[in-house]
User: Which sequence fits this backbone?
C-alpha cells in the first residue's frame, strides 16, 4: 500500500513547516533571529555527509542509542495484524525532494545519498524512561492527535539490502496514552509522551542532569531525516549556546529529524532535542534535479537544538551513577 507521492511528500515536511513562522523571541544576544541560521532552518549537510546506517557503525553503544530512537508514523500508515503479530508500514521510495523557494518538489539527482530508500516517518523521538518518549513539541499538536494520530515505531532501520522492512513486529509499535508535557515557542520546543505500555527490550537514554554543554562539545544526532530509516550522524560540535534555552551545531539534519536525540559523543548523555531543520534541497539547473545543500563544516551557527535542561525535571532518573567519560574518537568509528 503506497500513498500518492505528492501527499507523502507533504506529510513528511508538514511538521517542519509548522516551526518556520516568524518568532521574535528567538533572537538574542548569542543567536541571530531564526531564519538567518543558514542550514539551521533549511536543513543541509555540513562538510562531509556523516549520516550512516546503524548497521554500519561499529560501536555497540551507539547502535544501542539508535535502537532506543523511535520513528513517529501517522497512525493510518501502521496497520497491525493481531493474528500474525506483525505491523505493515506504509512507505514510499525517496525519489523527490522539496526545492528552496518552490512550492513543489523535483526529482532527486542520481547521486543523492539514500535515493530510492523507502521512507515513512514524519518525526523522531527518544526513549527516556521505560514508557516515556521525548520529542519535539511541533511533532505532537495536542493529546487528541497524540492518542489517535501517531504510532511510535522502534526498529525502523535499513537491512543489508538497504531497505527497511515492510513489516515489523507488533511488539515494536506503541501508542500514546498521555501527553505529559508540551512546549513550542520562544525558542524552546519539546514534548513528553507516556506510552501505552513499558518498552522492555530497549534501554532509556541518559540525560544531562546538571549544567549546560560547553561550546565545542562533540555531538551525535540519531533520527529519521526526510522520514528515512534511522540514521546516525556524528562529527558535529556545539557552535553557540543561547540563553533562550537552545544551542546550535553543525549537525547533518533535515525535516524528519525533529525530535531526534542529540547526544554528547564524549559522555553518552543527551544534550537536547533537534527541533529546527527544514528539508529543502537546491535545484541543479544543469542536470534538472534536486541536490543536497552543502555548507562549510566550520560555519559558526547550525541546526537548532532545545536544551534538555528545559525538560529533564519532568523525567525521572533511574540510571546508575554515570560512568567515566567515553573517548569520542573510539566511540564513533565508522566502517569504510
Assistant:
Amino acid at each position: 500500500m503506497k500513498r500518492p507521492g505528492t501527499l507523502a511528500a507533504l506529510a513528511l515536511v508538514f511538521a517542519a513547516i509548522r516551526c518556520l513562522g516568524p518568532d521574535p523571541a528567538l533572537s538574542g544576544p548569542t543567536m541571530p533571529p531564526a531564519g538567518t541560521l543558514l542550514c539551521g532552518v533549511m536543513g543541509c549537510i555540513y562538510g562531509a555527509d556523516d549520516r550512516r546506517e546503524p548497521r554500519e557503525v561499529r560501536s555497540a553503544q551507539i547502535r544501542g542509542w539508535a535502537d532506543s530512537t523511535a520513528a513517529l508514523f501517522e497512525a493510518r500508515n501502521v496497520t497491525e495484524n493481531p493474528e500474525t503479530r506483525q505491523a505493515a508500514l506504509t512507505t514510499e521510495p525517496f525519489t523527490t525532494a522539496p526545492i528552496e523557494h518552490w512550492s513543489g518538489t523535483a526529482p532527486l539527482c542520481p547521486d543523492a545519498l539514500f535515493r530510492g530508500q523507502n521512507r515513512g516517518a514524519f518525526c523522531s523521538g527518544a526513549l527516556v524512561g521505560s514508557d516515556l518518549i521525548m520529542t519535539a513539541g511541533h511533532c505532537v499538536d495536542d493529546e487528541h492527535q497524540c492518542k489517535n494520530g501517531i504510532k511510535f515505531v522502534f526498529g525502523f532501520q535499513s537491512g543489508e539490502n538497504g531497505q527497511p522492512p515492510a513489516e515489523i513486529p507488533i511488539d515494536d509499535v506503541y501508542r500514546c496514552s498521555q501527553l505529559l508535557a508540551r512546549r513550542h515557542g520562544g525558542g524552546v520546543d519539546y514534548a513528553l509522551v507516556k506510552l501505552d505500555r513499558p518498552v522492555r527490550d530497549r534501554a532509556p537514554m541518559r540525560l544531562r542532569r546538571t549544567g549546560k554543554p560547553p561550546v565545542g562539545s562533540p555531538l551525535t544526532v540519531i533520527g529519521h531525516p526526510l522520514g528515512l530509516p534511522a540514521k546516525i550522524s556524528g562529527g558535529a560540535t556545539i557552535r553557540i549556546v543561547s540563553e533562550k534555552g537552545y544551542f546550535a551545531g553543525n549537525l547533518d539534519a533535515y525535516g524528519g529529524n525533529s525530535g531526534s536525540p542529540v547526544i554528547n559523543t564524549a559522555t553518552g548523555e543527551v544534550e537536547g532535542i533537534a527541533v529546527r531543520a527544514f528539508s529543502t534541497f537546491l535545484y541543479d539547473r544543469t542536470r534538472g534535479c534536486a541536490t543536497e545543500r552543502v555548507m562549510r563544516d566550520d560555519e559558526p551557527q547550525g541546526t537548532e537544538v532545545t536544551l534538555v535542561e528545559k525538560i529533564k525535571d519532568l523525567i525521572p532518573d533511574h540510571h546508575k551513577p554515570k560512568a567515566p567519560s567515553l573517548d569520542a574518537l573510539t566511540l564513533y568509528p565508522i566502517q569504510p
Summary: Residues 101 and 280 are 9 Å apart (CA to CA). Residues 1-42, 328-336 have pLDDT under 50 and may be disordered. The chain has one domain: 5-312. The chain is about 10% helix and 35% strand.
